[in-house]
Specification:
The chain is of the alpha+beta class. The chain has helices at 35-40, 58-78; strands at 5-9, 13-20, 23-30. This is Protein kinase domain-containing protein.
Length: 102
C-alpha cells in the first residue's frame, strides 16, 4: 500500500506525495474541484454558463484540464537536470480519477 499525502493544489492540478520503493515521488492529477474544472462545467462564481449554452460534460472538462498537465510534462521532460526541479520519471495521460465528485 502506498502512503499518499496531499502536497497541494491549484487551478488545474492536485499534487500528491508518495513513497515508491523508498523514493519520494510526486503525482500530479486534475484537480476535480479546481477553478479550471469549475469554469469549464459552468460553475464559475463570476461567469456561470448561460442557461441557453450547452455545458460540457465532466469527461470533456477533465480531458481539457488534463491536456494542460500533459503540456507541462512535455516541457519538464525536456529540461536539463537541475537542483530546483524534480526529474519527470513517467507520465500516463490515460489516468482517470478514482473518485467521482458530484
Amino acid at each position: 500500500m502506498l502512503d499518499i499525502q496531499s502536497a497541494g493544489s491549484g487551478w488545474t492540478k492536485s499534487v500528491y506525495r508518495v513513497q515508491l520503493r523508498g523514493q519520494p515521488l510526486a503525482i500530479k492529477t486534475v484537480n476535480m474541484r479546481g477553478k479550471d474544472m469549475m469554469k469549464c462545467l459552468g460553475q464559475g462564481l463570476r461567469n456561470p454558463t448561460p442557461s441557453w449554452q450547452a455545458t460540457p460534460s465532466t469527461s470533456e472538462c477533465y480531458h481539457q484540464a488534463a491536456s494542460k498537465i500533459i503540456r507541462e510534462v512535455a516541457i519538464l521532460t525536456q529540461l536539463a537536470p537541475h537542483d530546483h526541479f524534480i526529474p519527470t520519471l513517467a507520465a500516463s495521460p490515460g489516468c482517470t480519477p478514482a473518485v467521482t465528485y458530484h
